[in-house]
Specification:
Length: about 260
């Protein structure tokens, strides 16, 4: 399917499909949102006239991650497992994806940004694997996808500190591929997608398949490991404190239990 949904708009500009999601105010991911994106991507894979995709979000942030504190959010381990099932479908999609990143791409939002082949960031963009600040274990396959992109040492720095990486540093690390002014962010992402789409589509598809060989299988294994560790940490005092602290915009006071 390529139809729009309540949280996802789909537009076509030449050979490029533009997917725009919106879950105000912070664009938290949900199982339904990822399912809708995956359904659209799988439909586009069957469309010979589509050669590339832009993934972008409404609002001031790209995605603030999963809402772990809200009972209507991604709050239980079963819903986290379901989230990863849909994320796996995103990584299995065949068309090249360019993500436009404004504001925060945090936690699962960082994971969602790494579904894309390329990221165009605004100067205000911030990338963070903030799980340890929540007393939690990284998820969304980030223990594989992040070191695959920026190297093990920088991925470890992000994962163990929860530090927010600004756009300029992200560009230097390869976490972002270009920086564009906020007013031209979507235009810059579209131009990159069009640059890809003007090439021979069979050659692009074959090349991308080789470059991403084994990624889906590695993502599946990573999320299984992550989910096992998250299941343990989910019941700790530190996790409860971490969620509370983030909600109160303060540093957590952790006790190691």
């Amino acid at each position: 399917m390529t139809q729009a949904t309540d949280h996802l708009a789909v537009d076509r500009i030449g050979h490029v499909a533009v997917l725009t999601f919106a879950r105000p105010p912070a664009n938290h991911v949900s199982v339904d949102l990822l399912r809708d994106i995956a359904d659209v991507l799988e439909g586009l894979d069957l469309d010979a006239n589509c050669r590339a995709v832009v993934l972008q979000a409404e609002g001031k942030v790209f995605c603030a991650g999963a809402d772990l504190a809200n009972p209507q959010g991604v709050s239980g381990m079963d819903s986290i497992a379901a989230l990863y099932e849909q994320a796996l479908r995103l990584f299995a999609a065949e068309l090249p994806i360019v993500a436009a990143i404004q504001g925060a791409a945090v936690g699962a939002g960082l994971g969602l940004s790494l579904v894309a082949d390329f990221r165009v960031a605004s100067p205000e963009a911030r990338f963070s694997a903030n799980f340890v600040k929540l007393g939690f274990h990284p998820g969304f396959g980030l223990t594989h996808t992040l070191p695959r992109l920026i190297g093990a040492q920088r991925a470890s720095l992000m994962a163990l500190t929860g530090r927010r990486i600004k756009a300029e540093e992200a560009l230097a690390w390869g976490l972002a591929d270009a920086i564009a002014p906020a007013a031209d962010l979507r235009g810059a992402a579209l131009r990159l997608a069009e640059e890809i789409a003007e090439n021979a589509p069979l050659a692009v598809a074959a090349t991308r398949k080789s470059l991403r060989a084994g990624l889906v299988e590695a993502f599946r294994a990573a999320t299984q490991r992550e989910h096992a560790q998250q299941s343990i940490l989910r019941d700790t005092e530190d996790f409860a404190e971490g969620v509370k602290a983030v909600g109160e915009r303060r540093a957590g006071v952790f006790v190691g239990r």
